[in-house]
Automatic annotation (TrEMBL):
<feature type="transmembrane region" description="Helical">
    <location>
        <begin position="200"/>
        <end position="223"/>
    </location>
</feature>
<protein>
    <submittedName>
        <fullName>ECF transporter S component</fullName>
    </submittedName>
</protein>
<feature type="transmembrane region" description="Helical">
    <location>
        <begin position="117"/>
        <end position="140"/>
    </location>
</feature>
<keyword id="KW-0472">Membrane</keyword>
<feature type="transmembrane region" description="Helical">
    <location>
        <begin position="44"/>
        <end position="68"/>
    </location>
</feature>
<feature type="transmembrane region" description="Helical">
    <location>
        <begin position="80"/>
        <end position="105"/>
    </location>
</feature>
<feature type="transmembrane region" description="Helical">
    <location>
        <begin position="152"/>
        <end position="180"/>
    </location>
</feature>
<keyword id="KW-1133">Transmembrane helix</keyword>
<keyword id="KW-0812">Transmembrane</keyword>
Amino acid sequence: MKDNNKIKVINKKVDIKKSIEEIETGTFYINKWRKYFKLTPYKIAILATVLALNIVLSAFSAFALTPLVIGGFLRVEISFLTYIIAWKLVNGFYSLLLVIPATWLRYVGVDPNAEPIGLLTMNLSDLFALSFFILVSNLLNMKKEHTGKMKIYIKYIFAAVVVSISTGFFNILINFTFILDMYSEYMGVEAIKALKTYSFASVLIFFNFIKYVTNFWLFLTFYETINIIYKKSIFS
């Protein structure tokens, strides 16, 4: 164990020395972005595993959580958890790319209730929530090593609340501007447009708060395990 720690310290010193040399030669940021976007076997394996987990959690949400709908048709999904895992283990760019195929794969039998307007809404909502979370995580430097669990947990809880509430308002915006109109045309029910009310807006805020806070809570539940994998990936 001590030998492993010594190796890690030596590797860190080598990386620091290499970074200083790169800064002096003006190649530091170029190499940094190349490393960020480069698809290594590790990244591909993690993304494939996360996508498979997303399909499983989507199926669970479709079959087990459908009876617990809010407002008669808003179902809490726990698949957003996988995007946070992808952000932690890979990076923000590829976690965002994962949202689109993961959402629309519900059409291959994962979700028997899948329909285009609902999937479009989920896709836009999850993209906004994940993008906003990545922004907050960068501002709070949440991938940096912290000395205590409490400090990082407080940051995640703060991010979860801010992201959940903000995504609720984002959903009000897209529903009131075009989603409800699209639903009305798609289903041939003019009364759907009448949902543009304060009461429905409050339902959207409540629903999104429950959905995203639940996903962040699940992430924190498995945080220690995920963090071990993350640390191993750094020194691999």
